[in-house]
Amino acid sequence: MVSKVRNCIVIGLVCSLAACGSSDDAEHESLVAYTRLACPAVSSNTPYEDSLFTVIDNEHEYRERYLATALNSQQDAPAVDFDTHQVIMLYAGQKPSLGHSIDVESIAEHGEFLQVSYREGEPQSCGADAALSYPYCFVSVAINDKPVRFEGEVFNSCP
């Protein structure tokens, strides 16, 4: 009987010690729901040439940035309720050819910040039409006051 109790105590201690080695990030990470507004998308005419990753918290800035990403578009910006949501904009900047893209993979809350993980596609092993392109992505999320960090990876967009 003493042996069984001792084994239970040892097993309990081992299990609790194993939990001590887990990372704080994994414990405090929770996925955040988001809605794609325009993602992935590509423009051929915009005043933005450099990459830009930002959080937009008002209707005016959102409409201005959204409409400027595709100057030739006749479409209005998708509706967003800025009383409850904010917009995250990922803009990859000017690219030398078609076949480039940018897309959100996930958004997660990591303790003191929000992390936006994205993938940026580029044609690495195939020919792509030589035309300037401007990949972008807009997503909406519930308002969150935490700072946002962007983490991306590049992948080969060739089939």
UniProtKB/TrEMBL annotation:
<keyword id="KW-0378">Hydrolase</keyword>
<dbReference type="Pfam" id="PF14343">
    <property type="entry name" value="PrcB_C"/>
</dbReference>
<keyword id="KW-0645">Protease</keyword>
<feature type="domain" description="PrcB C-terminal">
    <location>
        <begin position="87"/>
        <end position="141"/>
    </location>
</feature>
<dbReference type="InterPro" id="IPR025748">
    <property type="entry name" value="PrcB_C_dom"/>
</dbReference>
<dbReference type="GO" id="GO:0006508">
    <property type="term" value="P:proteolysis"/>
</dbReference>
<protein>
    <submittedName>
        <fullName>Protease complex subunit PrcB family protein</fullName>
    </submittedName>
</protein>
<dbReference type="GO" id="GO:0008233">
    <property type="term" value="F:peptidase activity"/>
</dbReference>
